[in-house]
Design goal:
Largest sheet: none
Radius of gyration: 20 Å
Structural class: mainly alpha
Number of strands: 0
Strand content: under 5%
Number of helices: 2
């Protein structure tokens, strides 16, 4: 399991406090709407911690899947 630094824990704690009191806004400089999802609030806190240089695990990325070929040749 990944370890989080004290700095990142403090950032997430601060953001969750804002979320619980209805003060957390999404988007750049808080121009978006009020954050209504707990997971989104945690993601914002971890993002702020990354920008501040705290030790935070890398973001999870989706793996690419192979798509089937859509162009099928018609044989007569």
């Amino acid at each position: 399991m990944a370890k989080y630094s004290k700095k990142s824990q403090d950032k997430v704690e601060k953001v969750m406090h804002e979320y619980k009191h209805g003060e957390l806004k999404s988007g750049k400089s808080g121009k978006g709407g009020k954050v209504k999802n707990r997971k989104q609030a945690i993601a914002i806190g971890l993002s702020e911690a990354r920008k501040a240089g705290a030790k935070v695990p890398k973001k999870k990325t989706k793996t690419k899947t192979k798509s089937k070929s859509k162009s099928k040749s018609k044989s007569k």
